[in-house]
Write a structure and sequence with these properties.
The structure is a homodimer of 231-residue chains. Chain A contains ten helices and no strands. Chain A is mostly helical and 231 residues long. Chain A binds a DNA duplex (30 and 30 nucleotides) through helix 1, helix 2 and helix 3.
Chain lengths: 231, 231
DNA sequence: TAGCTATCGGATTGGCCTATCCACTTTTGC
DNA sequence: GCAAAAGTGGATAGGCCAATCCGATAGCTA
């Protein structure tokens, strides 16, 4: 796909040898499959198995799971950001807002790994977090536009979207293949509760810092199983 | 090896020796603590450690995790059923309904293990499932009453409560201590979307069988890590 | 109190996980 | 073609987990 330019080191720190590059792509493709099926809790070993490469190759290319997550999901997060952009183009802001929520939650339903990514934070996954924050900025505008038309309740907070993704992740993970469309009903309920006029006040939003801390903690957990943690 | 057994077989199939009974209580108390903190994914070994008993004692008393779950959560599920009963006593059915949802989700927030229990099914946990179905029956009446007053939307389905619990479990598990009250806001949104008149149609409810299958699958997973599962 | 037996709990087996090491193979540049 | 560099994957260490075995211990009953 792109010759140099892997992740953090820079555009072309050192082009990989052809077979190495091939294996790298195979690993990413395998991870896409495995993470989509099993979520981010899938093991590095299972990805290597799926890719048909040795465990060592896995760890040489992606020393931490965060780096793998970055490589696998940064483009999907790009698609997520695009969905926000599309929503911003909708002449009807409320319509755009609703369509965006449904699209975003649909992406969660289609990919367990991405469902996890949307509720976790990975500080070292630079590209991924960059895309995430692009999406976030656009989302703020989307929310403002929707509020301006008066169809989105005034007390809606951007962090509510994170909560919705956490809730949706819960539904998606719990139902899996057994009830693959259950999330649609839940999301529809959410959307209807967001339409103005509000039917009542809401408890205070958790605030960004605590939520970020929660997402961070969840992300850390993914990296390495607790080294020591007894009583 | 084990002549009588304790709970499911009857009140006192074979009274345990005093030290055994003491250990049994210690294990249950420890499990209450550990499950509340770590959810049902906590290991049997960690419960034994917390209880200060040997691993063997653990497995002798509770050969499967389901039996332990039964012993630990059947009384909490009883409290859950009581919450429904209390709600049924409320002169205002809608008020009772809303209070019940908030109480139930609050129980999830206060106990990660119980949050899991409400989204999983454990066929062999007889007492627990008995209580669950008692609660379910009462809940059906609660829903009918709330609908009869016209304040609960007509298209509300009993299975929606399961979905709400799955969503709430997602929020509770994701936020943890970092944002301990986030669930309140999510639940408030849900409640407002349930009040009549409905603001729009909903996608079809998933139906009980698929949801039950989902809960069953989740419960199975808890018992034993997949014996074999490669591609 | 004495002996029988239920019960205890550490050691152990076998599985899966993360992570590293090192002898062998492939690619690349000349 | 050929050698050096880059890359590969199996073996392996160390950890946690479920589950079982068996010598030691503690409770119960006569």
């Amino acid at each position: 796909m792109n010759p140099g330019a892997q992740h953090p080191d820079g555009p072309a720190a050192q082009p990989l040898r052809s077979d190495a590059e091939r294996n790298r792509e195979r690993i990413i493709a395998a991870a896409r499959t495995v993470f989509a099926r099993d979520g981010l809790s899938a093991s590095m070993a299972s990805v290597a198995r799926e890719a048909g490469v040795g465990i060592a190759t896995m760890f040489r290319r992606f020393p931490t799971k965060e780096e793998l997550v970055d490589a696998v999901f940064s483009d999907r997060m790009g698609a997520y950001a695009d969905a926000v952009a599309v929503a911003l183009d909708d002449p009807d802001p409320w319509n755009g807002f609703v369509g965006y929520i449904e699209a975003a939650c649909g992406m969660q339903a289609a990919d367990s790994g991405f469902a996890d990514v949307l509720t976790m934070s990975f500080p070292t996954a630079k590209v991924l977090e960059q895309r995430r924050s692009e999406a976030y900025e656009a989302m703020l505008r989307l929310i403002d536009r929707a509020k301006a038309t008066g169809r989105l309740r005034e007390d809606f907070d951007p962090s509510d979207l994170v909560l919705i993704h956490m809730a949706n992740a819960g539904v998606v993970n719990a139902t899996g293949d057994a009830a693959p469309d259950a999330w649609r009903r839940v999301v529809a309920l959410f959307v209807q509760s967001l339409e103005a006029p509000a039917r009542g006040p809401l408890p205070a939003a958790p605030g960004h810092e605590p939520l970020y801390k929660a997402m961070l903690r969840a992300g850390q957990g993914t990296a390495t199983p607790p080294p020591g943690k007894s009583s």
